[in-house]
Amino acid sequence: MPALEFTGYTVEEQRYQRNKKFKTTGRPLDLKPRLTVTTALDGDTINVLLGVHVGTLAHDPFAVVVQLQGEFLYHASQDRAGLGVDTLIRNNAVAILYPYVRALVSNLTNASNDYPALILPTIDVTQVLKEQTQSAKTAD
Q1: Mind telling me which Gene3D superfamilies this protein's record contains (predicted)?
Q2: Closest of 96, 74, 94 to residue 84, by C-alpha
Q3: CA distance 71 to 88
Q4: Could you give the residue ranges of the DSSP H alpha helices within the chain?
């Protein structure tokens, strides 16, 4: 049995908003996903809320928001490397949920029938979250 057991996820939010005022410029779109992560611990149960926001109605043809809540069980006796629950959430739980978010964003944007499906890149989620945190601190 692994130290971190994924028991499933639920879709908390999925939203697509079309920007009716957007004018096509012929330039490629630069839609960078912004990730948010919130965690809650209840004994050995860990709930991780992973959100992805893509685009803004101020500058882009659409805005997409997807949020998933994943549930995990932490088995401390199986954590032989001594990583701890925080490291397992940061490095593993979010990485487990990200492919589900990618699929939902692709399906949602494809169903809009305005633009081709947006396929989010595969990323090192831990690194992206670290960079976003550093950028936010620099902006303050």
Answers
A1: SecB-like (3.10.420.10)
A2: 74
A3: 13
A4: 85-88, 94-111, 125-139
Q: What are phi and psi of 116, to 5 degrees?
A: -60, 160
Q: Is the dihedral of CA 23, 117, 71, 5 positive or negative?
A: negative
**Dihedral class, residue 82 (left if φ above 0, else alpha if ψ from -120 to 50, else beta):** left
Q: Taking the CA of residue 115 as centre, how many other CA atoms within 13 Å lie in the half-sphere pointing to its CB?
A: 21
110, two tokens: 């494809």
Q: Which DSSP letter does residue 19 get?
A: -
Q: What are the backbone angles phi and psi of residue 33, rounded to the nearest 5°?
A: -70, 140
Query: Kind of pairing, strands 45-54 and 34-42?
Result: antiparallel
Would the pTM count as exceeding 0.85? Answer: no
Answer whether residue 93 shows pLDDT above 80: yes
**Which of the listed ranges 5-9, 74-78, 126-130 does the model predict with the highest average pLDDT?**
5-9
What is the band of 81 on the pLDDT scale with cuts at 50, 70, 90?
confident
